[in-house]
Fold this sequence. Notes:
Largest sheet: none
Number of domains: 2
Number of strands: 0
Strand content: under 5%
Distance between the termini: 34 Å
Mean pLDDT: 91
Structural class: mainly alpha
Shape: extended
Helix content: over 70%
Radius of gyration: 21 Å
Amino acid sequence: MAEDNTINDMFGNEEMIKIEDQLWGKNPRRSTALKDLWLDLMVDAVEADDKPESAKREMLFLMAANNILDMVMEALPEDLAMDLTISLDSLIGVSLVNRRFDVDIWENNYQAISKLKREDYDSDEEFGQAVKAMDERWWTVGKQALGGRTPNDAIVEEMSKYKLNR
């Protein structure tokens, strides 16, 4: 079995820094640019509305989030945008489950998988298969922290509240 390469293995440290800056490091600068692009227009629209202040703050947030999502979707080819929406909806579902049940699904999954030890297996391939099987099983077994729901079911349940499931 070929070894999986991490991003650090594939790129030198200098290249990794460039990638991280492009993906995450520029976000504060992007946020400032978006503020300059939209804030005055959105504030004017919200201030013209006669809703209570709390509703205006919610409207401002929803306008900003929707504009950002629209911009991201427009920047991608349709097939990538579709893949992104599926991943984003799933991540939102996980986040909603984490908040509702005061858990960290990713951390709990990691803790379960990390109990597997490489030295208990004859080969890297066998160990990799065990990790994959444990991961697949973990998502489909009820968890006490989720009121007996499986993580998959809890995520689908939360996504359904917002009509985000496929």
